[in-house]
Amino acid sequence: MPQGVFRFPELHRLNVALSKMGDKNPRWKGDDVSYIGLHVWVRRNLLKPDSCEMCKNKVDDLDLANISGKYLRKLDDWEWLCRKCHMKSDGRLKRLIIRNKKTIITERDKSGRITKCCQA
Ligand SMILES: [Zn+2]
């Protein structure tokens, strides 16, 4: 550290940081938090398990899933799920399967690649 520069002791800086955490922070938005901001807050505060909370499979990447669909700032309204369980729980998997069933392949080229398809 260059001479002549004053720095507060590390313990003091740590205490100042701790005094401004969470709802004590001047930028705290409470329930007006954005979708992304809420996910960041939950990600920081909800312990991430080793496996999916629904199927118990161990996967490298777990999704943060909202349980109620209301996106509340309550940790018990969130869970860590694998992608498949997350898509099942919020209905995306069912919608994707229905959408894919409606797609009709009409033309393929010589190598078997789809060249034309349409929605039924
Ligand atoms: Zn799962």
Provide a count of the helices.
4
Helix content: 25-40%
Average predicted confidence as pLDDT: 90
Major sheet summary line: 2 strands, antiparallel
Q: What's the end-to-end separation, in Å?
A: 70 Å
Oligomeric grouping of the chains: single chain
Shape assignment: elongated
Q: Which ligands, by name, code or SMILES, are bound?
A: zinc ion
β-strand percent reads 15-25%
Q: What topology, given as strand order, has the largest sheet?
A: 1-2
Content-based structural category: alpha+beta
Backbone CA Rg: 24 Å
Total number of beta strands: 4
Order of helices and strands: HHEEHHEE
Topology, please?
Blueprint: H1 10-19, H2 35-45, E1 63-66, E2 78-81, H3 83-89, H4 92-102, E3 103-108, E4 114-119
Antiparallel strand pairs: 1-2, 3-4
The chain binds zinc ion (ZN).
